[in-house]
Amino acid sequence: MNVAFVARVALIVSVAAFLAAPSIFEPLLRSLAPEGAPVIYRHANLAELTALHLGLTALALAASALVGVILAISVTQPWGREFLPLSRSLANAGQTFPPVAVLAIAVPAVGFGAEPTLIALIIYGILPVFENALAGLGRAPARALEAADACGMTRAQRLRKVELPLALPAILAGLRLAAISGVATATIGSAVAARTLGEVVFAGLASNNLAYVVQGAGLIAALAILISDALLAMERKAAEAFPV
Amino acid sequence: MIAIERLSKRYGETAAVADVSLEIAEGESLAIVGSSGSGKSTLLKTINRLVEPSAGRVVVDGEDVSTVAPHLLRRRIGYVMQGAGLFPHRTAFENISTTPRLLRWEEPRIRARVDELLTLLGLDPATYGPRKPHELSGGEQQRVGVARALAAEPRVLLMDEPFGALDPAVRAKAQVDLAALRKRLGLTIVLVTHDMDEAARLGDRIAVMHRGRLLQQGTPAEIFSRPATPEVAALVASDDRPFRLLALGSVRDLVEPGSAAGDPVAVEATLRGALGALLWSRRDAAPVVGAGGEALGIVTLKRLIEAGAEPKA
Ligand SMILES: Nc1ncnc2c1ncn2[C@@H]1O[C@H](COP(=O)(O)OP(=O)(O)OP(=O)(O)O)[C@@H](O)[C@H]1O
Ligand SMILES: [Mg+2]
């Protein structure tokens, strides 16, 4: 029972309590709200917003994981190697665009709402997954690869039975980075009318209500911490199961 | 039977293997020796198509290997490499069962085969089967590597410096075990090594390579006593060449009638062992006894010394 574990449990309990009955926390937040203004955000159900925020992030994460890993596998095959530099610079370019710019470009194309946010999230998620998967696929020792061939594995079998398992910890590390940045980027999505926790923060900023800002930002931060923790634990498990 | 016919492999300007022809008979073991970069590994790997030749061909059991899909060919040929090359994320059991699984053997047959091999190699299946490679010593890893190569019951075993990473004591034990295994399974073995002693101990014949070319092939005694070129001579020349030569012969070859005093030597002992015994006890001759202790004659210091000398032209 170490401190970190206790802190984590406390965080989960408080998030759950806050989402179930936000009014319990009203006394704590009262001093942050302007005189006479509401303390707890009531324009939407906070639990529902949290679920939407998470859902959007998870959907985008799944898509970028799929694209990133497939891309990394493709450019490490003999037939795809020549596309390695190109795909690297494309993924890097995606990352250098600020999220707001991606949103601004996506809105005219697909309209307001969840779609432009999803596009931005996917684009942002691909690079960390791709780069980490690439590093992971390069992690298998040359001798193990030669052994796989010598044992009579086909290329596909070698990929599935040796290269991917050994790459899994690195792939999970990439997912973790993408998830953390995704949780943050989804916040900005509310600027283009995606329903996320960003709505609470922006409402607070617009009405000068610090209590709103703290509620929204606190929930977002808590989500990022908990997701990162969960993925880190998986990563450690995988590294243990698939040591190099 | 393996036939390597006029085989060459070039990498750009370098000829890693240049016009090599070799035959390895069924059940024979051939040791390939030569200095670093002489093309030993490249030649070995053309047999299971880990390397594709630039010219020439390899025929295994009458079949040109270039006509067989590489992954199918490799499932019938065992391959052991230096440092074992185990899959780090798989247990010893899983490593050994790799090829049988690719061949879709039934689960009970796989289990029985892995247990049999682990036992044969002196590793308790219950203890070692579930261990990951990082939980095994270098020698144990090497044995698991050998077991993995033998799992699908190949008749041909290719070995590329299999014991190169082991310390001398473990290595000697591994060599003895391999010789026993070979006898028991009737394996055809091609072994790459740069240790002449290992080549002499494990090879029925030795092939000497230098800069991609095959300089000489013959029995260890032929190679040691009559090197064909200065390069071969340089490879085998050393102060202990007489002892290597003596280690290849057995007392049986030199027994003569007579009687002598002191501890007897066994007729199956090496000449090197007999010489050691005589030197140590300051004798000129020792009685020779058979496996049942029966007297067979004597072996003399004089004959032993002659056996270790350079053959007269
Ligand atoms: N994949 C490759 N690409 C280019 N050159 C290679 C390749 N493999 C081997 N060579 C070259 O071919 C020559 C023979 O190499 P090989 O590995 O067969 O030597 P070796 O006798 O096994 O040496 P060692 O005892 O050091 O293992 C060397 O000059 C080596 O540099
Ligand atoms: Mg080599």
TrEMBL record, chain A:
InterPro entries: ABC_transp_perm/SBD, MetI-like, MetI-like_sf. Keywords: Membrane, Transmembrane, Transmembrane helix, Transport. The keyword Transport applies. PROSITE patterns: ABC_TM1. It comes from the Bacteria. It is a multi-pass membrane protein. It holds the Pfam family BPD_transp_1. One of its GO terms (cellular component) is plasma membrane. It is found in: Cell membrane. One of its GO terms (biological process) is transmembrane transport. CDD domains: TM_PBP2 (cd06261). Residues 50-232 form the ABC transmembrane type-1 domain. The chain crosses the membrane at residues 49-75, 96-112, 118-137, 166-192, 212-232. The keyword 4Fe-4S does not apply. Belongs to the binding-protein-dependent transport system permease family. This is ABC transporter permease. It comes from Hansschlegelia quercus.
UniProtKB/TrEMBL annotation, chain B:
Keywords: ATP-binding, Nucleotide-binding, Transport. Gene3D superfamilies: P-loop containing nucleotide triphosphate hydrolases. GO terms for biological process: quaternary ammonium group transport. The keyword Nucleotide-binding applies. SMART domains: AAA. Residues 2-236 form the ABC transporter domain. Transmembrane segments: none annotated. GO terms for molecular function: ATP binding; ATP hydrolysis activity. It comes from the Bacteria. Belongs to the ABC transporter superfamily. This is ABC transporter ATP-binding protein. The lineage of its organism: Bacteria, Pseudomonadati, Pseudomonadota, Alphaproteobacteria, Hyphomicrobiales.
